[in-house]
Amino acid sequence: MRLGIRIRGRSKIKDYAYITARVRAKKKKLLPKETYQKLLKMGLSEIIRFLSESEYKEEINELSDKYSGVDLIERALNLNLSRTYRNLIEISSGDANLMIREYLRRWDIWNIKCVIRGKRIGASPEEIKSLFVVAGEFDEKFLGTLAELNSVEDVIEALSNTRYHRILRKYGEERWAELEDELDKMYYEELIDILEEEVSEDRKLLLKVIRMEIDVKNLRTLLRLKRDGVETKDIEHHLIKGGEELHERELRRLLTLDYEDLLKALSEYSYWKVIEEAIERRSLVSAETRLERYGAEYAHKLSYYYPLSILPVIGYIISKKHEIHNLHLIARAKELGIPSESVEEQLVI
Amino acid sequence: MADPLAVGLLALGAGLAVGLAGIGAGMGEQGIGAAAVGAMAEDEGFFGKGLLMTVIPESIAIFGLVVSLILLFVTLPSL
What we know:
The complex is a heterodimer of chains A (about 350) and B (about 80).
Chain A: H1 2-28, H2 33-41, H3 44-52, H4 57-63, H5 69-91, H6 94-104, H7 106-121, H8 125-131, H9 140-148, H10 152-158, H11 165-171, H12 176-197, H13 201-227, H14 232-236, H15 248-256, H16 259-266, H17 272-280, H18 284-305, H19 311-336, H20 340-346
Chain B: H1 4-42, H2 47-55, H3 58-78
Helix pairs in contact in B: 1-2, 1-3
């Protein structure tokens, strides 16, 4: 028995050695900070040329016959993100594979949200498909059929064999804002349950990152809605349970405060040092960007202490998402003629 | 004539020296080998470094071999 445990322990090292080495090599290929400055100065066609010579080469070449301009960039970025994430699932094994798959299930929820939003505003199937990030349980074919359906009701029906159906049925099309919140809450609850099922160092570490992520999400919601003077009862259902520092009781206390008092109360938490400067400048966008960046930094920092664990992989998943977000943002801003300064503030770098 | 028991134990020791050192080297190499292959899958330029890193624990196996050779060719004839 003892020997069995020891051998399993060794195989864990082997599993993680492989995937973390690959992920570290992949991380090196992410765009460095300085590149964004260059991209901000470029025009749309120059950005496409730049991307066609970078890691996005394959996707840009593949799609350049059918699409052009910002449409080409967005589709290529989403396709690249899907492929990168699916590749991580393919190259991982054992517990690491399970954790990556569970973590990436958030993209299923993103895809469901895209379909429902698209159907509500009458977007074409082609437009909806362009937003998909095929990294969760649903494959491209299934998502394609969802996008082709006629109404939200049909989409909910088509999802009847999935774990999301209960919530979809309960809230339906009429309460879609709540529906989106509930899907997010369900995702985090299930993820925490799965990670708490078995006690292992990796699960504990991932749980820490997830709880921090929930805190960041709740903080963003609180800051934004409190600043806009939204009623407490309207904020409450947006908040997600299971945070690291902002427990349920803390959240309830913060909910009762007004914006200025909320800022004072937040100085008790470790997140304050991240957002302090931005809040003093009265720039909420910048505070949100910093919190996002902090999430990735947290996973990377922890991964230095635990090099052979799931953390380098999760850190990479987050960083890759940020890179795609930044590129989306720059491409959209270029098309709409938004000045570089305001885009720069929103870049998560 | 050397004591047969001593000769037997010596031969056993020589075998254990090579065998255990081999197992130790193998255990050391499994993580490094997996990581090297992973890095190489992403970037072929890692081949040289990866190979070098993978064979570093191999020196342990050589130490074992040297010990067993000493036992067999130096200690055994002097018994």
